[in-house]
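Annual report, structural modelling task.

Input specification for the iron/sulfur cluster complex:
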Amino acid sequence: MRKVWDFHGGLKLDGHKSMSMQQPITVVPVPKTLVLPIQQHIGEPAHPVVQVGDHVLKGQLIAAAESFVSAPVHASSSGKVVAIEERAIAHPSGLLATCIVIETDGKDEWVPLDAHASDYKQLDPSRLRNLVREAGIVGLGGAGFPSYIKLNPAPAKTIDTLILNGAECEPYITCDAMLMRERARSILDGLLVMRHAVQAKRCLIGIEDNKPEAIKAINEALTLQEKTIVDVVTIPTRYPAGSEKQLIKTLTGIELSQNQLPVHHGIVCHNVGTAVAVGEAILEGKPLISRIVTLTGHAMGKPCNVEARIGTPMQELLDYAELKNQHTDRVIMGGPMMGFVVQETQSPVVKTTNCLLAITQQDVTHEQHPMPCIRCGECARVCPAQLLPQQLYWYARSKDFDKIQEYNLFDCIECGCCVHVCPSHIPLVQYYRFAKTEIWAQERDKVKSDHARERHEFHQLRMERKKQEDEERKRKKREMLKQSQAKDSNKQDAIQAAIARVQAKKQAQHEQENNSTVDDSNK
Amino acid sequence: MKQLISSPHTVFGNSVTRVMLLVIFALVPGYIAYIWFFGWGLLINSVLCIATALACEAWMLHLRNKPLQPFLTDGTALVTALLIALALPPVLPWWLPVLATAFAIIIAKHLYGGIGYNPFNPAMVGYAMCLIAFPKQMTAWLPAMTEQGHAINFADNLRFNFTGKLPEGTGYDALTQATPLDALGIQLQLGNSVTEIQTGFAQFSQYFGVGWDWISILFLAGGLFLIYKRIITWHIPVAMLGSIGILSAIAWLYDPSSNPDPIFHLLGGASMLGAFFIATDPVSASTTPRGRLIYGAGIGAITYVIRTWGGYPDGVAFGVLLMNMAVPTIDYYTQPRVFGHDKADKP
Ligand code: SF4
Ligand code: SF4
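The model returned the following structure:
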């Protein structure tokens, strides 16, 4: 077995995984309406390229990515665009977002696809990345960072290791586990495409040891020849083993700091679901229009995993899994540790919706009255980032944003381990988010005020210069005036002198004529 | 629309009350042994301390406009009261436990902002204040139980507490003795050697010594239970006992006639109680792993110094209070290396 490294802290949590793994992945029927937000990931929104009334086919581009950190959106079934408007989406902010609304026609008709099954190895890696970009693929495990960027090694960086993340450490979520069990071959196909795109030397697939079936399925799907480059690594089950940094540490022993990217160490890390999407995009030409979603929690009548079209209203999935409304305390998108509450269940499934978790009152230890921090240090003991959460809390409360950064607030991955163990029930992560947001806001203000100051200073400078120039001009004018006056007076003198001379001459002539003596002074 | 609730959505059922109840639970064996060897005085003192603690806590919460629930039931006042009772000598006038506890809760805890904000260990503040103000009563201990039973029975003890009267024919000075640690210190300063003292004084009779040893061993057991339950970490106890052990071993090896052996230091006095239950009070202790090692070692060293050269019977209380003062500095300079940062990375 491969050596695995240990990371600090973390928690052994109850998995609650088996409840949603009782039956195979099923496909949710095409909904009547699809709601497709034009931004489903970190970065810039895409720009709609269809108009209300247009007929679209399944897989057709409906919003194009224009900036670097952006991903296009495709129609996830055929039908008619009925609206491009603000709709509720599932997002921690609870804000509305622009969505393209499609009324499906039930035909589910594909656009012509451009597959590269046989020839992708002849394609240039950069061409491959472009195809991945055009397929609208974002990281399906977490924040949804556009995948093509992560497949793009920095110039002059060779990629040594391509990691597939199959850890899935959050409790309840099983979409990756089911995917590995049922579509191991597709994962490996996608992995090989990715490998070609980054030209990686070796591939590692990290899977937590609570998923023996998944490990077995992947191992069985590997061909002998693939086994020489792909290593399936069993890692201990401990939250947050699937967090990118912790996984990289576990598999390679390398610790990335807050501002380092895996690529700095010749590592690229993708989720297993993303691998499938990349494989389908290249080998079959299909853009990303559906994903596996885990529907689970004790308030679900029929917990399961489904393949759902992006844009399907969440309510349809909740109905599909027979949500018991009267028992539901809240519906969470994501897992219990890092997910957020879905406020509007008509919000659509997006590319990052890995799980809808419906929990009952019994599942949450109810928000007890937070007590003051007793500095027990339990939070520091479990913090995978090796921070001192109690100090961060102290400085977040007192709004000492300089100190809190000295204590490395921005290394916090918001995993929630500290809150989980805190005897005082302090919502620590909430404080950290608050502090981060405040600091960002301050920095924005600072940038703005810097600009303003620059503008102000420049203005001052300009005024100053203008004043100087004015003075200079005035001075010059005055001088010129003086000079001209002086010239004038010279002229006048000269004129007068000339006149005098002329007069004198005349006089002299006159006097000569009159036989008188010549006045020397007039000569 | 549902209220926005921040992740994580499920938590492990930990609470301050749970922590405090486990601490009390871990104190029980040592506590029982204590009563077994030194009589009912501890129980009387405990009742006085607990009643005072709860009353003061409630009063202060009322004055500070804080809800009684959950603060009164968090168990912290209870732990403070029990630690004071364990630190006090068994026979005392009733007002001393009351005074020590009231001082601990009102001044050391609430005037600094209540639970979580007190820089000093409240129990030790209360104890030390009384020790300084009333040294005579605070250093008079009882001899341990012999075949004849306890030195003083429950009724007599209670009567003394409230009326100051002892049974006919028993004088206070005849009844009480210094603790072994105290006696040893005094006699060493008078120029006697360790062997002379240990054979010549009642404190070192078989019963007395054995009593202290048992109590300490049971506190050690309770402390190990707390480590196992992850209520405390090993750092402070190991560092504190380690530094007492190492310092006393060096002195003992250097001159056994004027320095008692390390076992005596570790099992005598309040070493075990202090290391596992007092120095580990989370609020006033250091909170980083390396900081806790420094903090514990500092307490051990100060304890040893006071025992050897100081005028007080034991040094744990002063060790804890002095190191409490150093905690902010210790914490600042012992921040753990953050994931992905270089080892040298300092704030
Ligand atoms: S776990 Fe909670 S009470 Fe303990 S130190 Fe951390 S924040 Fe404070
Ligand atoms: S949420 Fe942040 S501070 Fe808390 S354990 Fe996770 S990384 Fe550490």
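Chain A is about 35% helix and 15% strand.
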